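Entry type: protein chain
Record version: 2
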Amino acid sequence: MLQKRGIDRNVDWPTFSIFLALVTLGWVMIYAVDYEEGQPLLTLSSSAGKQLIWMVISFATMLIVMLIDWKFWRTFAYPIYGVTLALLAGVLLFGVTIKGATSWYSIGGSTIQPSEFAKLGACLAMSAFLSSTTTDLKKWSDQLIALGILIAPIVLIILQPDAGSALVFMSLLIVLYREGFPSIYYVIGFTMAVLMIMGLITEDPRLIWIFLFGIGTTYLSHLIFDKTRFYVILAAIVSFGLWWGARQAYFEPNISLVSLASLFGGLSIFYSWKKSVRLPAIMASAIVTCSALAYGANYAFNEILKPHQQDRINVWLQPDKCDPRGSLYNLIQSKMAISAGGFSGRGYLNGTMTRLNYVPEQSTDFIFTSVGEEHGFIGVLVVLGLFLFFLLQIMRLAERQRSTFSRIYAYAFAGIIFIHVVINIGMTMGLAPVIGIPLPFISRGGSSLLGFTIMLGILLKLDSKRFQI
């Protein structure tokens, strides 16, 4: 019966099984966080009870998705994307504000976060555009359209403001790169990110100049000298950088170091002049631009951002400047909870820091701390292993698709899962900024679970019909 209606035996059940395991594990951990001895085991008003309702809704929605013709998603990719953008715009006018962000619609006592469904719309639109036979990412016009599809939801989400959810959409850059987006943009973007971070963490501008001259010297030496000279200069720059870092840990900066860096840059510009007059001009322009970016980031951090926004960045980049009883408290408690689990954990329902509510947002953003405390290294390894196998399965499905649209969609979905997992787990250990995004399928939240479930259902449907293409 199901096969005639659109669900056949070609469905990838291993991928579905991993999904089911993650959702079940998530509910078990949410129950542990919500558990109180002497209270009823489960009520519909509890966090675990509400999540159970959303699980039923999500599974039912996945079944509906599997019954829809697979061609529907390719045909209506752009309209779906448009609807999700409209929902993002509408929440700014009609949404409810929770913890300073107007990111939710209130419907029948429940809240729905449209940014979770905007991920689906963006994945479908990007897949439709990149799979078009007329798309050529070597053209400026097509590059701008692709970036427009990526940036539109980011802008609307930042206006809420919800920087964490907006950051997730950057995962689509992975898909763009795989489909031929010029790599130079990624080099420029990475360099800009490094410069901005340096501008935030350093109070001595000479450190930025050393970085700039080091990069410039390496690049120009590669163009001018033979391989032997190039590697000698590169080794000198790296050695100098390591020495500088070691010196920074114990001594005050010395102006002679800046002079040495200037010498490297000056020699490169001098020799490059013999090869091309344009190189020094290009190098000078790049240095001015990069310096402006670094100093601009520093100025924006100190003069524009509000104190609580500065604290969020400092917790990640400069925790020594944060108050252990203030902005750093949450991260300290998170690390303590994870480390308290040891190798095998304290046991299910025995997590003292979890049950006594030391860690904030334990069932949502910081659900991973509960896994670490109650199940220890073994539990953490199981969760990471499940996500690793899940991503590998999605990539396997992507590579066997005959449809370009299906392949791109699979990689887009994998990218979003990857970014969510890395940032969520990273922020519980201080390796990423605390920006408040859920751990897929595990964190409590109906919008997140429903959105990810629909995205997976579409992928399984597309994969099950791959032989028809």
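Comment: Residues 367-399 form the longest helix (33 residues).
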